[in-house]
Design a protein that fits this description.
single chain; alpha/beta; Rossmann fold; 3 domains; 6-stranded parallel beta sheet; 20 helices; 17% strand; globular
Length: 546
């Protein structure tokens, strides 16, 4: 066994798991880890941000774009605390992030002696936003804990993990065994329940497949396409899974969201008229399902890795705790060459529902459709969109077609602002050949615009499509609706000249005032190969853009 310091053990263990990219910020407490990173620059790409929150979102964006765990290295106390918002978003959205953070020396943990950066309970700080976290007591335990983290990423619902290492362990040299990555068994469905669900599927005349966020992260799109085509089933996607089934596929009915924020959607009621729903990899969050009166049939098969979430918002006929891709593969194997197609009548009905959805959109959001049509026509099929929860993002959910998995990401867990830009940076690191567009507002962008410096330092080139209304636009609209136009308060913003801000980092920027300019400007920005701002000025609100 080689003699390695704690810092070297961390880096060598990550490399043994196939990690090739790490995000984070250097600190006095993690210097030994960074010294080991220095010696591994030939095999590990390090991206250093300007704030731990932004670094966490970068790691999340990297993970959502690549399907691989995002790795975040942070420091003790305030550095660790700055990342909690990103870990919370990853937890509730279902992203596999591994955060390795330091803590004060072992003798000071929980002592109350106020050592430098000492926290009352740093481990407890992360407990609420991680699937698992632990403090590592000795260098020899580091490989075991990192290996356990990667095993969990493959066998449980993807969620963040925090491993905490006391600073005094990082410089200690010991004999240590680096563990190779393992390939744990993918959780398959109980054969009896899989067979029960299959018989329901074969008997159904009008089945709908609901594709969820686990499919987006863990895969299964090709298998679901094959199943949908064999059956002639309708396919919808939920919050967090847009693009996990191609929205230009004949079986696709797009996203389920509707009502107040997302506009009227006939799909909400129509699904309840189907005779079977197959829910694959979705927790069916209240906010975007039962909370907006989305209807599902009484016959419901729910496949999910997180068994505790099954049945919380909708009664379930057949619960299957398993990986959705594995279960669909089990069904395909059982179906084989059988003719199980539901027939032309149901296909015509699917097409009719799709047409009605389009008519509703044109009635309510005709102008928004023009905007996103211009965006979609200017962007290649594999463009990755990273969005904040803003007015444009809520419209994009329904109006922007997405064709490939992992090309549409937004903070659907916590719904916090500031995600879009650093997540776009992380996505561009993971997918450098894909165009990456951050769709944000003037307020949301300023949460983490300091990561422009990260782009400049490391040559990372996303495009920022900013809709600037000089306001917290979502809140301004809600405030006016609820209290009246004359009682709007604290929602207007004073902003910098954003083009000049980009230029100060050596980047470029363009201002747009109407839809006719948008497509060409965006196309040029993508073609430039540089970090580029496309600022859409909408002083009267997004809906007034013409």
């Amino acid at each position: 066994m080689p003699k390695l310091t704690g810092g070297q053990t961390v880096i060598e263990s990550l490399k043994a798991q196939g990690v090739d990219t790490v995000f984070g910020i250097i600190s006095i407490h993690n210097l030994d880890i960074f010294d080991s990173l220095f010696g591994s620059q030939d095999s590990l790409n390090f991206v250093g941000g300007r704030l731990e929150l932004g670094c966490g979102f970068m790691a999340d964006g990297y993970s959502r774009a690549t399907g691989k765990p995002g790795i975040l290295i942070t420091s003790t106390g305030p550095g660790a605390a700055d990342s909690v918002g990103a870990m919370g978003e990853a937890y509730f959205s279902g992203s596999p992030l591994l955060q390795i953070t330091t803590n004060v020396e072992q003798e000071f943990i929980g002592s109350g002696k106020l050592a430098t950066h000492e926290t009352k309970n740093q481990l407890g700080m992360f407990e609420a936003v991680t699937d698992w976290n632990t403090s590592i007591p000795q260098v020899e335990s580091i490989p075991d804990n990192i290996t356990e983290a990667f095993d969990r990423f493959q066998t449980r619902r993807p969620r963040p993990i925090e491993l905490e290492i006391p600073t005094d362990l990082l410089g200690v040299e010991v004999d240590v065994e680096i563990l190779n990555s393992r390939q744990p068994d993918v959780p398959k469905g109980d054969p009896a329940k899989v067979e029960q669900a299959l018989q329901m599927l074969l008997k159904a005349e009008r089945p709908v497949i609901f594709v969820g966020e686990e499919v987006q992260q863990l895969g299964g799109t090709q298998q679901i396409i094959e199943l949908a085509e064999k059956l002639g089933a309708a396919v919808v996607t939920g919050d967090g899974s847009k693009g996990a089934f191609p929205e230009d596929h004949p079986q696709s009915l797009g996203q389920t969201m509707g009502r107040r924020i997302w506009g009227e959607n006939p799909l909400q009621e129509w699904m309840g008229t189907c005779d079977l729903a197959i829910v694959l990899g979705s927790i069916l969050p209240h906010r975007s399902t039962s909370g907006i009166q989305m209807q599902l049939p009484k016959n419901l098969v729910h496949v999910l890795l997180d068994g505790d979430a099954i049945g919380k918002n909708y009664p379930t006929s057949v619960p299957i705790i398993a990986n959705s891709q594995a279960v669909v593969q089990q069904w395909l194997g059982a179906i084989g060459d059988q003719d199980v197609h539901k027939g032309k009548k149901f296909q015509d009905e699917i097409a009719s529902v799709r047409g009605e959805m389009r008519r509703k959109l044109e009635e309510t959001w005709g102008n928004e459709l023009k905007v996103f049509k211009a965006i979609r026509e200017a962007t290649p099929r594999n463009t990755i969109f990273s969005l904040d929860p803003t007015v444009p993002a809520s419209r994009a959910t329904r109006c922007l077609d997405i064709y490939e998995p992992r090309t549409y990401m937004h903070p659907h867990g916590w719904l916090g602002l500031g995600f879009a830009f650093p997540a776009a940076v992380g996505a561009k690191v993971g997918k450098p050949d894909n165009p990456v567009i951050c769709v944000t507002g003037d307020g949301g962008f300023q949460y983490n615009f300091q990561e422009l410096a990260t782009c400049a330092q490391y040559g990372i080139n996303p495009v920022v499509l900013m809709f600037n209304d000089n306001a917290w636009g979502v809140l301004k609209g809600f405030q006016g609706d609820r209290f009246g136009e004359n009682r709007r308060f604290a929602t207007n913003l004073v902003n910098p000249d954003f083009v000049k801000l980009f230029e100060s980092y050596g980047f470029e920027g363009s201002k747009v005032t109407d839809v006719s300019q948008l497509g060409k400007t965006l196309e040029n920005a993508i073609g430039s190969g540089k970090t580029h701002l496309v600022e859409v000025q909408i002083p009267d609100g997004f809906g007034e853009l013409t």
